[in-house]
Predict the structure of Arginine--tRNA ligase.
Amino acid sequence: MDSKKLVVDALLKVLPDEITEEQVQKLIEKPKTSDLGDYAFPTFILAKSLHKAPNMIAEDLVGKIDQAGFEKVVNTGAYINFFLDKSSFSNDVLHAVINDKANYGNQDEGKGRNVPIDMSSPNIAKPMSMGHLRSTVIGNSVAKIEKKLNYQPIKINHLGDWGTQFGKLIVGYKMWGSEADVEADPINNLLKYYVRFHKEAEDKPELDDEARAWFKKMEDGDEEALKLWAWFKDLSLKEFNRIYARLGVTFDHYTGESFYNDKMDAIVDTLREKGLLKESRGAEIVDLSDHDLSPALIRKTDGATLYITRDLAAAKYRKDTFDFVKSLYIVGSEQSEHFKKLKLVLKKMGYDWSDDITHIEFGLITTGGKKLSTRKGNVILLEGVLQDAVDLAKKQINEKNPDLKNKDDVAEAVGVGAVVFHDLKNERRDSFDFNLEEVVRFEGETGPYVQYTNARALSILRKAANLDYADADDLSLADPEAWDTIKLLQEFPAVIKRAGRIYEPSVIAKYALKLAKSFNQYYAHSKILNEDAGLNARLALVKSVTTVLQESLNLLGVKAPEEM
RNA sequence: GUCACAGUGGCUCAGUUGGAUAGAGCAACGGUCUUCUAAACCGUAGGUCGUGAGUUCGAAUCUCACCUGUGACACCA
């Protein structure tokens, strides 16, 4: 079913010998619109060697090309345009999707090998903000894409459950908090202490010293400090899990930073043995000036560890435990230097697998052009956004489809889907300013648009439930109205590959929008349930579109309600 | 200051490996529900692709310089 090969072969027969198959492969392009054919070959590069104008060359070659197997081959100016045979092409594509179902587009690139994915990683005792949404949904989608390529993703929630921040929290709690307040509304009250701490520490720097001291106690195993810490953590996880459930995200491990607490000495020892550790200004560092980077701080002046120390331990642990082929980190791009350092230090330690680590970075969400900061108290709470979106979806359902069953479930799927899709539809590196109206929009290039397209298509299939189009031998569909949709269906496997190669869920989101739009155009102009010779093929097309739309949404972590 | 990333219609963004008149969505204006869900479809209007050079038959795409924005730059993560 390799239609491009058909074109390449036809060209090779008539092109001068010095042009290789590889060159032809590279030169062939897909025209922007179907009226210029399905493949095109530009003849400019032949002009010099043949001493002829490109459009003359194109005209010449068209005369020589064997047109068998094509609908037609023509030239437009300097281009040779190939039009595929719609009947056989559609027959092949539709059979492939109907047979493979949700497995359509699966690949075996990963051969079942392990790929740990460091994702979500919210900080204990802080509410989940829109910022955490990004790491969570990108990670979730990347994991699904990896799985489709037959890697074995291992989703790790690298909780921010260790560090000086807990010293601050303990200080704040002891000064202004009470057990009753925390139990009543854990995250919000803990957040209050944290924000107040930062405010007061501006005038009273001794508070920072106190906080550092408490964290040092945690590292030294102090009972009171650890008891408070465990309590904060437990309460936080309960709230996080409620949100993860709404997003449909699960994890294989919740090994946060604290998990590596007892693995830190080994890493520091190794660094020392390899002569990488140096003392500088009272702290222990790995010098990276040979790479124009500031040093990696391994131990603070007071002996406590830092972010990178824990990440070194985590990287090593993951290699030892999972024997990964690649190890992914879904973390904001503001930390790109951290990962550069992390990989470098591992490399200096002699670990070649440092090269298999990839930082999958994403852009910042800002509000009013400013970075979200828990410390300063300007956060956009994820749960609030989800609820706003779901409420709006419910309102729309009541207006547009008041008789719908299980309205609440559908509203949840549509509202949450809109938020998740919005986050994934643009390149992950792009930063965007938060705008509620835009995030919960249901029209145009949105998640609900894709969901709605799928729901309408399913509605047609319900009306044709008594027909066995799926078993029909002939699924050829020469209808030009359906052509773009059929070609898009055929592209799906290549889309998966590309999304996987560059770790970009947006590639799939964009594809889903394109497919939905193309199908909506077809739907608006053609009557599908007509009793004529093309009925089986049309129904197979509708069925294939629902299969691929649903799988696309699934890969993005968005639900596909059957009715809405 | 150094490094990284970005700059495409009023707004938000597409644009594999350079290719045919730069595409969508929102917002604006106009049209389409007695027929498979109008969260849809069709049309109109709107762009010197940050600026200036260079490479090329051909540049939004590659190179260089500059401008603007954002982020990172040792005891936070």
Q: What stands out?
A: The mean pLDDT of chain A is 93. Residues 172 and 196 of chain A are 8 Å apart (CA to CA). The domain at 390-556 of chain A is CATH 1.10.730.10 (Isoleucyl-tRNA Synthetase; Domain 1). Chain A has 21 helices and 13 strands.
